[in-house]
Amino acid sequence: MFAVIDVETTGGHLYDDRITEVAIYVSDGKKLIKSFSSLVNPQRKITPFVVKLTGISDVMVSDAPLFEEIAQDILDYTEGCIFVAHNIGFDYSMIKREFKRIGISFRRPSVCTVQLSQRVFSNQPSYSLGNLCTNLGIELNNRHRAFGDAEATAFLLHKIIEEKGVAYVEEHSSTYSQNIEFKGTLTQEMIDALPEDPGVFRFLNDKNEALYISSARNIFGEVSKFLLHAAKDKLLQDLLEKTVVIDTQVFNSVIISELQEIEELRTVQPPYNKASALRKYPIGVYENDNLNAKAFYIERNANGKALWRFTNEKRALSFLKKFHKDMRINTPNFPAKEEVATSYRDRVETALSHTLYPMRNFFIIREVSFANTLYAIYIEDYVYQGYAEIDKEFYDGNLETIKENIIYCENNPLVQKALQRYLKKKSVKLIAC
Question: pTM (2 decimals)?
Fold first, then answer.
């Protein structure tokens, strides 16, 4: 049996927002058996964007039941079922967090119709629920309301089962991770105890040495997926046999988790991570402090604060040549007249701001209200310096306090890609310094 679920929330943030509507359709894989839906009082304001998107307003939910008042209904409707959602990471995590707030541990085997659709309907231009329904001939009523989206997701599940069968869906759900026979010290109880928060997890051996390190949006979910993969991989089976404990570090920030993972992979070099993640970049491109000279120079320095890093000198030289050509930076003959040198440096500054980060010196700030924590990522002279994690009770609002708490890390291509991807988000808060 499958419990197909969709939720609407006060906003799009997994860790701060609350549920405003939940809908469940129970299916045997061919037809709908029963359903449940309810508005939910989130006990906080709904963002204007979500009100416009869903039509659910603060007035509509003001007299709705609290989540704890419908919790038993959700437990009953999902009992003995595989939890199904379109983008399982969001809906499942939101439900689990609401249960956690009222002191109940909610755990169901789960499967994602986005991932299933990508496997079964591999030629689709888009895997959003709306586009899939249009292209596969599925009726979708009441878009962006939980009962409408959940019903459409149930019909999508039926189409997937028509193509591949129930066993295929079960095989790609997390059900199997609960039936893995561990040959080493690991137990299902240890897996179940893992947090469902963003952070870093480490597979440790009996000498407390890290064998494998990774970051995750949801530590429990990511470890569960990893175990499913490991059960079919001989090399990873060896890892599991050697693992004594899974150590975790919760950050309540996905980008901070990624940065910590990259730094640990560089310094620890765990043997079971992919070689590409452990690659070293000893060659750096540095900015020249002498204004009447070429703006950049190349140096072999594993610990220096380089603008860019490469595996060898040839790659660094090739990059600089292309960078100058693409950015249309013509290097004058030095020594040069002051106005020539100044114009050259202005063009370099513009190129750096377009290529690396929007400002030379700034903090990326992420405040996590429910954890009373402030995270800050520090960029100085266009180079990532590190991050800080500060309890807001001890933060005086002074930027120097952030600098005093920075955990300094190395800048490398993996860090730059992660930060540049993060900076594309509209909600990112920047503070110049």
Answer: 0.71
